[in-house]
Amino acid sequence: MGAERDRDKPVAPHRGTADPAGGVRAGQYRPRVFIYLLASLYCVFAPSIELLIAGRFFQAVGACCGPVLGRAVVRDLYGRDQAAKVMSYMASAMALAPFVAPMAGGWFHSMFGWRSNFVLLALFGLGLLVAVWFVLEETNRHPDPQALDPGRMLGNYGQLLRNRLYLGYVAVVTFSVAGLFTFISGASFVLIDMLGLPPEHFGFGFCIVVTGYMSGGLISARLTHRIGLERMVGLGVVGCALTGVIGAAMAWTLVPPPGWPGAFLVLAPMMAFFLCTALVLPNSTAGAIAPFARMAGIASAGIGFIQMGGGALAGWVVAQAFDGTHRPMATVTAVMGVAALAAYLTLVRPATRP
């Protein structure tokens, strides 16, 4: 019992240690946030769409440090179950970005032009750089002088990819995130082109769905300690599969009317899917990283890379399959939900049984 309590006890941050993913947490953040800031400023003055896309690429290079190192910091400070709780709160907080960003971006675009959005992002990056530089303390407890050795990094990745539990949780996360990306990729076509919503109203439709994710994150934070991490993931993937299948069935049997009445028919099952996904992601992430205290950074990076790749692929499929209806979006979402459930049943559950 004492060991069980100790694993969830917060760990005091300290300075000067390294991680097998390379460098120290705070030291990793600062140059990447600086890259994000410079790329945002570059986008303000980009003279062509090609150069704007290049600037956006480097924005992503800098921004990727946020979720990757954030998850590693949580793993440094907390045991597995407490980390799941903290990541659930983080998921709800992070959902504020897609909740607010579409509306704020539309307002800034209409009032000041598209470049104003990148001015806003640059100011955000500046504030973040100041916070990281003066507030973020070191959290990694496991120094490794060979952290940046390529052979060591490849060996660590090989160890992760041979771990069935890690692969199972990564598969569950990837399929769940891919379900989210189907909506992110197809929502504008469905709500604006198919249902005829004004572009300035698109953000409100997005907010409805994101509310589900925020609610799921809060539910997960409150209940994970009581029912257990694995069971919470199981409930989440069952919910993803059910809501995805229900949404696909509605898409193939009902013709939504134009405007907001039809939008609610499309958004309701997606909102439920987002809620269930928020039960899956933080808990699966905590479960995947927890066994690798000395490789928290590289384990987090692996999750981030694979889930974003899967999400991008699902979004591409939806874009290519768009036929003027929301059937492709709903169908791919259902497939991803069922795939997440299958990954849980075949990989995660057998590996977590006593």
Question: Would you kindly provide a written description of the structure presented here, covering whatever features stand out?
Answer:
The protein is built from 14 helices and no strands. The chain is globular, with a radius of gyration of 21 Å. The protein has helices spanning about 1-5, 25-45, 50-65, 65-75, 80-95, 95-110, 115-135, 150-160, 165-195, 200-225, 230-255, 260-290, 295-320, 325-350. The protein has about 350 residues and is mainly α. Helices cover about 80% and strands about 0% of the residues. The protein has a single domain (about 15-350), classed as Up-down Bundle (Growth Hormone, Chain: A).
Features:
single chain, 354 residues
Kindly estimate the percentage of residues that lie in beta strands according to DSSP.
under 5%
- Main sheet summary: none
CATH architecture, please? Up-down Bundle
Secondary-structure-derived class: mainly alpha
The CATH class is Mainly Alpha
Parts with pLDDT < 50 across at least 5 consecutive residues: 1-24
Distance between termini? 17 Å
Q: Would you report the number of β strands?
A: 0
Percent helix, as a range, is over 70%
Count of helical segments?
14
The fourth-level CATH homologous superfamily is: MFS general substrate transporter like domains
Taking all Cα atoms into account, the compactness measure Rg is: 21 Å
Q: What do we call the CATH topology?
A: Growth Hormone, Chain: A
Domain count: the total is 1
What average pLDDT do the residues reach?
Answer: 82
Succession of helices and strands? HHHHHHHHHHHHHH
Query: What would the principal axes of the Cα set say about the shape?
Result: globular
